[in-house]
Amino acid sequence: MNSGAGTTTETHESRPRSASSRLGTGVCAVVLFLGSVVTAYVVLTAYMVEPDGPWDQQAVTNSKVAAGMGLAFCVVLASLTWVFAKAEWLRRWWYAIPAVLALAALLRLTVFAPQL
């Protein structure tokens, strides 16, 4: 038997983070936060638009455009999150924000789409 088979463990060096790394984390967090606020506003606008009656096709179109723009913004946010997480400036939980916003935009485009 190999006596060292069960004793292998991964060791992570706990290096202190440099000032530039902390600055990068802060800048990335601010960029994603601001992008998330803008995206959430666009998706919220898609939910706020309701037709006034059966003649109001413009409101339906506006809701679909806002939800589509929100979905496009979510793709940009997810891409930025991927870059920042890959560079190890941010943690993986930041993926949750564009995922939730994309789900809300998709639901507005499909299940909760305004009806005439």
Please tag this protein with its features.
116 residues, mainly alpha, 64% helix
Which residue ranges are poorly predicted, with pLDDT under 50 across at least 5 consecutive positions?
Answer: none
Q: Could you give the order of the helices and strands?
A: HHH
Radius of gyration: 21 Å
Biggest beta sheet summary:
none
SS summary, helix count: 3
Averaging pLDDT over every residue, what do you get?
A: 90
Strand content: under 5%
Portion of residues in helices?
A: 55-70%
What's the β-strand tally? 0
| Large-scale geometry | elongated
Query: What class do helices, strands and sheet pairing give?
Result: mainly alpha
Distance between the termini: 74 Å
